[in-house]
Structure prediction request, 232 residues.
Amino acid sequence: MIRTRTALAATVAAALTLAACGDDDGNDTAAPVESVADDEMADDEMADDEMADDDMADDDMADDEMADDDMADDDMADDDMADDDMADDMSMNDLMSRIIDRDDLTVLDDAIHAAGLQDALHDDGPFTVFAPTDEAFAAYLGEMDMTADDVLADTDALTTLLQAHVVEGSDDAAMVMDMDGQAFTTLAGSELTITVDGDTVMVGDATVVEYDITADNGVIHVIDTVLTPPAG
Prediction:
């Protein structure tokens, strides 16, 4: 009887041991389930990261495309502005613009602006302008013992001097050459007598060296001497 109980006790003890081992084994088999779940979560996170990267890449591409579009728009706007400027230049055919375009009339250009007469030569008219060259102005300054700054500083005298080179009306070369012995009255009130000798035409003391620079509001004849209005 005692042996039987001892064997029974041993059996129970063994069963308890197996149960305990079974629990441990159960725990061991549960661990992989958790690992699989963790792997799936990691995969989801990686997928989310990839989606986020894709979204960022798409956004960058969209930003780049927008930037390219903006740059293209800016280039088109610049081209339009350049075209407008070219159109303005092509449409400007007034007396002042023709003077500005000349390399040999730069002092006259400066003098007109200093006197504030440029708007009249842009908009008004028609006028005939007898335009002294830069060389003519240089000779005039030497004779007067003045500098260009001296002349440009006295705007009243400068205005009168410039008006002595302008006549109302648009008189081309044919008209001027047909006026031998006659005279123009300038805007300054001075008289310019025309002298014709063959192909040589003189206006006052100046010789015309180039005829008929035409403009929408008049004509320019280039001369080799500055015309000085009478004193007083």
